[in-house]
Amino acid sequence: MRTTADVALIQAAASGDPRAREELVALCLPLVHNLVRRALSDDPEADDVVQETMLRAIRGLSGLKNPERFRAWLVTTAIRQVRDRARERRARSLRLLPLEVLDETADPALSVAEDAVDRVEREQERRDMLAATRWLTPDQQQVLALWWQEVNGELTRAEVAQALSLSPQHTAVRVQRMRERLLLARMVLHAWRAVPRCPDLAETGRGWAGTAESKWFKRLARHVHGCPVCGAVGAPRVPSDHLVVTIGVLAATPCVTQASPEASSRAGPPRRSALIVRGNPRERVAAHVHLAPAPG
């Protein structure tokens, strides 16, 4: 959101114009949805975080002194909500890496042409890339989510820095560290999936149940980093930023109905669970800021 028209739209929305608010939600929702989804990975409550972010943004418009900073303020609000959710999630059981996916191998009978083989390998690269993000720390996953939007042209580096409350120089360091860990995680997954698997790596990983525990990442990564065999078979063919572009940004998806707007209004102030209403995220947000979403 960069133009004079965008600023005018924000000002109109801040003044309470329902149509302006509706249009602003439509413009901002894809960015917030992608940011939250990338930061929270497969968290089933990610849509709740998206909705809470949008509600806070719409309700906080009247207090925004500089409309030109709305986009950066929105991203900062999203990151704050992500951090709150991440703190809640840390107490839960560790997520499992999809080993059944990582252990899949292509049927040789189907690999009848070089282009088919290349497609299979690139798809596996994308799978490994997404699986590797689970080995990032919570803070690094937030950096990843912002960097993902930057690579896809949705955010500038300055906006990423502001969202992280860091200088551009410190932001560059944080992004680089995240990318280094992501690359090493991809190498570990590639080496683990190799057939035959390095015997020393197999011994190092004996007893590993596939959890995304930091201690297992350290053990496996230490071996892969120092093993010429694992280093050779684990080296990714496609750079991470190229995969980010090919994977692209996420599309907002419909959510299962848990409560209607009418039921929520009768029950008083909506709880988090009551905020989920029929339709796509834009419609759900609109229902709780008293907008009238356009048909379709």
List the helices and strands in order. Answer: HHHHHHHHHHHHHHH
Oligomeric category: single chain
Mean pLDDT score = 73
Secondary structure tally: strands: 0
Taking the alpha carbons of the first and last residues, their distance comes to 23 Å
Shape: elongated
> Helical residue percent?
55-70%
Number of helices: 15
Described by strand count, sense and barrel closure, the largest sheet is: none
State the secondary-structure class.
Answer: mainly alpha
Beta-strand percentage? under 5%
Tell me the radius of gyration: 22 Å
Low-confidence parts: 93-97, 99-117, 252-296
Structure, described:
This protein is mainly α and 296 residues long. Among the domains are: 4-91 and 280-288, Rna Polymerase Sigma Factor, Chain: A; 99-136 and 179-247, no CATH class. The protein has 15 helices and no strands. It starts with a helix and ends in an 8-residue tail after the last helix. The model is unreliable at 93-97, 99-117 and 252-296 (pLDDT under 50).
Give me a quick take on this structure.
One of its GO terms (biological process) is DNA-templated transcription initiation. The protein has 296 residues and is mainly alpha-helical.
